[in-house]
Amino acid sequence: MSALRREAHNRMLTAARPHPAFARLVGVPGLGPIRVAQLIAAVCTPHRFRTKRQFWAYCGLAVVTKSSADYQQVAGRWVRQARATQTRGLNAQFNHRLKAVFKSAVLEALKDETLKRYYERLRERGLRAELARVQVARKLAAVTLAVWKREAAYDAEQVMQRAA
Fold it and tell me: What's the pTM?
């Protein structure tokens, strides 16, 4: 089984390396060659997504808000209630492979000083650890999309400027 696994690993890397974005995406913290190969296979082209929020939804990292009973009948008239919509967690329809790629990349990316500072800042604000990791996964997804679309190299300074 290990020989078969090694062969699959080598074939996946052989197929992904010629892709123009492969070298740039490997430079993003937390994304190694295997994760980049899975990312390229699942997304194909970053231009499918107009915004990072669309990409987050595809990756399963977008927050879903749902509400019911927005209106109430008062004195024979329907009146909108003043309650805010309730958040219900992350979206349920997503690409499972991409969610696994980004959530596993977070643990590796937290070794990078730039993203570690971002994570610690989120924790200092009182965000729970699991929610802070999801926030870092969103940051990684947004950075990955930007690097891929703009055909630019990963720049840690630019990431922290926008995160401030």
Answer: 0.81
